[in-house]
Amino acid sequence: AGEAPAEPTEPAAPITPGGFIGTQRNELVSSLKLGMHCLLVGPTATGKSMCAAEAFVKADESRRVLVIEGHESLREADLIGAFIPSEGHFVWVDGVLTEAMRSGAYLFVDEANRMPTRTLNVLLGVLSRGAIRLTEHGSEEVTCADGFQVVMAMNLGKAYAVNGLDRALLD
Question: What gap in Å lies between CA 97 and CA 123, rounded to an integer?
């Protein structure tokens, strides 16, 4: 507590469509246009992030894209938000997940299975319920605005430092 949630990042520059080679981008675009959440799985350096960035532009270039990188020290507060000190008092700052939910943005979660299972379960709850209760923020109920979608990317296998995944998330 007391630390601001991790800052979401937005792609620094648009990736020119056509950079990703493979059929997966068109499949991802179709899935996004259908309102689906998606999971990209593959070895390192196969273009999962590039595929997602290009698909976001092709599916709806006007929609905001928030990005968060999964890592072992990512906390639930980084996703949902926290109270942080500001000018002698505490103010609530939404995390990247809550911000994306409220604004109907795309949320790209890179290296999703590198984050702790407990943190990933917060995301799983939102994907299954379409809402989250912010117990630390007066039990405010935040529902997903129209357009909110999650695309996650991850590597699987023994050669990667990753955490196991809940079967419900893979479904």
Answer: 8
Scan for tokens 């500001």, then name that residue. 86
Is there a contact between 116 and 150 (Cβ–Cβ < 8 Å)?
Answer: no
Q: For residue 104, with 0-12 CB atoms within 10 Å meaning exposed, 13-18 middle and 19 or more buried, which class applies?
A: middle
The secondary structure of residue 108, as a DSSP letter, is E
Model pTM? 0.82
What does the radius of gyration of the chain's CA atoms come to, in whole angstroms? 16
156's CB contacts (< 8 A; 6+ apart) are 41, 113, 162
Task: Count CA within 13 A, CB hemisphere, residue 67.
Answer: 13
CA 143 – CA 1 distance, rounded (Å): 24
What is the distance between the alpha carbons of residues 6 and 33, in angstroms, rounded to a whole number? 29
Residue range 96-146, pLDDT digits in tens: 999 999 999 999 999 998 899 889 999 999 999 999 999 999 999 999 999
